[in-house]
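During the second year of the project, the team shifted from modelling isolated chains to modelling whole assemblies. The rationale, set out in the original proposal, was that interfaces cannot be judged from single-chain predictions alone. As a representative example for this report, we include one of the complexes processed in the last quarter. Its constituent sequences, exactly as entered into the pipeline, are reproduced here:
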Amino acid sequence: MSIARTFWETLEARDWEAFGAVVIDDVVAWWPQSRERVRGREALVRFMAEFPGDWHLRVERDHVDSTGAATLIAFTSGGETVSGATFFELASDGRISGFTEFWPEPYEPPAGREHLVDRVPA
Amino acid sequence: MSIARTFWETLEARDWEAFGAVVIDDVVAWWPQSRERVRGREALVRFMAEFPGDWHLRVERDHVDSTGAATLIAFTSGGETVSGATFFELASDGRISGFTEFWPEPYEPPAGREHLVDRVPA
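Output from the structure prediction step:
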């Protein structure tokens, strides 16, 4: 199993010891949209363990190569499902040294491209 | 060069013939945030060629494996730079058969996690 998938599966399992083991001590998590950063395994495990709600996640895409990894997850909480896009950096031992994560929100399409685009009903 | 990087570099070059050659005839582009879909090479090339503004892009992450690819790009237009996260499906001949793309926007962090998080100035 890829390290990125193990990251998500141990998180979904709330297996904090196994989750902590997939990241390096000095892991850095970065959410550019809110400009929030979490540094270090202990803070990251607490961040995830304290995350509110009865949430669940499912890995939809998982691409790993020698330079890192990217995943797309479906994250469900309170009956709502949203997408999360995560780009991982890997340490030389294969563990996760950092990640950059995005939580895109719906927006209205700009005008002027209706002739090329279908809008799919929700 | 990876097929995903070629996709972006031919787009940046406005080399529509080369851009069209990296996707299959029936390529499907999907933007879940606006629920917009573009079907087919011709429509996709027109969509990109008609995209307004003097835009430029740079590939920041590029991960490809046997099941597909993911990229993170920095897209600049009108002096503003935003991030785009794209997940590509590949046809058996290696060309791009589809992609799902996200354009995340800034948001304010939720309360309650200040004890674990640094906020990085813009």
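The two ends of chain A are 33 Å apart (CA to CA). The mean pLDDT of chain A is 96.
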